[in-house]
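step 4 of 6: structure.
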Amino acid sequence: MSTAAALIKRNIKLFFKDKGMFFSVLITPIILLILYTTFLRNIYMESFTSVIPEQLSVPDSLLNGLVDTQLVSSLLAVSCITIAFCSNMLMVQDKASGVIKDLRISPVKSSTLSISYYAATFLSSVMICLIALVLCLIYMAIEGWFLPLADIGLMVLDVILLVMFGCALSSVINFFLTTQGQISAVGTIVSSGYGFICGAYMPIAFFGKGLQTVLMFFPGTYGTALIRNHAMRSAIAELVKQGLPSAAAEGIKDSIDCNIYFQDARVGIPTMYIVLGATIAVLLFIYIIMNMIKKGNK
Amino acid sequence: MEDIIKIDHLYKSFGSVKAVQDLSFCVKEGELFAFLGINGAGKSTTINMICGQLAKDSGTIVIDGVNLEQHTEKVKGELGVVFQNSVLDGVLTVYDNLKCRAALYGLTGKAFEQRLQTLAQILDFQDLMKRTVGKLSGGQRRRIDIARALLHRPKILILDEPTTGLDPQTRRLLWNVISDLRKNENMTVFLTTHYMEEAAEADHIVILDSGKIAAEGTPLALKNSYAADYITLYHVEEAAVQAMGVPYEPMREAYRLSVPNTEKATELILKYPHVFRDYEIVKGNMDDIFLTVTGKNLTGGTER
């Protein structure tokens, strides 16, 4: 146990001390923040106000809440994955620099090594994402919108699940990487690409039908939908309470990926949890099997 | 002395490249064992197999009476390895690096602190504890590498070209430390090096060529078998040297004769006593042995 703890501590320390790696994880959230502050915020504000009947008087705090919760859910959905990916690159860096030889020369089991990478990635990513969540909640409170405690709790659960998914996916992909060049290539692709395919930069509902169908086979889509539902449902419920017709509220939910459809069938929240949980389990199983096969072939 | 490493009919291939072919040798407990060969001769492959980093194709490796294949983890606890290049975490401090590595051997708390203090004193790095490893000089980093390898008091210390690129002062310090460890703790040292003067200090040498043993023995036995003796004659005429019928080369104010062994040198002295008034006889060095055995020059690893 002390061996695993020492390795986890080492991995976490390395992640936070390696400034290059640490700042590269912040690229996607920064792009997202810039997009929102420059034009996306206005676009979404206009989009929401256009579906609200003119006779309905909606306080600014509620409108800000709608836009901000969408930003927060996008930010968290994308960060949980990209941070986990970048953090888990330590596994590849150890291979590229030869440090792994020094770890493997000791009597530590290879399963302990693999678990330590996963656990350290999970802990450092969860730590950063939960700090990001707290900062987002403070920002929304300043803007005048407070999330119910239950929804905050569910968002914490979503963050944990998404980070677990990011760690498991990156463990499987990073397993095959061995060089610094591959680290840069995969890091860049994930950092810049995941924001698009998870619907963080633009809701999946805006994409073409074909692409939407493809994205529904990506487990990350369900994670984004979960966090978006829990972040935005109180604001949308408040809109309905203020007099917005239910049909219009459902339209908003459809347009911002709170409602997602697989083969035209609406996917419920429990199903989203099942898909995400099952994916994590399958990826972890694959990761374990790959390590066992590698050990046998060594 | 007991055999602490026993390698028997070891084979390893990478595709069509036969890296190690039918390698068998033993290392006695407490001895300094030198493993020589040009780059690509199979040294690192063999070391990686001994350390359990690489699977062998066939053969057996027994370390301290334990079969490596059956008890890899146990054997790893007996080995300390200093790699060619430093493999510590560059962004962490010396203390953090050593603390983490010690924990891999179950060495924590007070036991770790005590061991660290001892090693810091021996290797003179008390002032470097809070420095990040990446910012240390080559010599300082090498001392930390050796401390890392010695943390768990291994029975066998494997040194893979440990002094390459080091300044003479650090090289001397390292060899003094290693010599003390052998004397005081009966530690076995398994060395690969490109410095022939280091190999000459070994108790036993194995020369590897294309994955096979080309020669082995003590430095003296190897010199006697593979290196010629040199006689340097001073203050003689060239005609007198020529008359002896032995290959020679002129030097400044002297002639250097090459004779197959010391016996032949004695014969010449007895036969031509008037020529041998001012002379010296030296045995061939490790470079000569290596060249004779492999036909290659070790430094730089190129064929001559």
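step 5 of 6: annotate
 - The radius of gyration of chain B is 23 Å.
 - The first helix of chain B runs from residue 43 to 50.
step 6 of 6: archive
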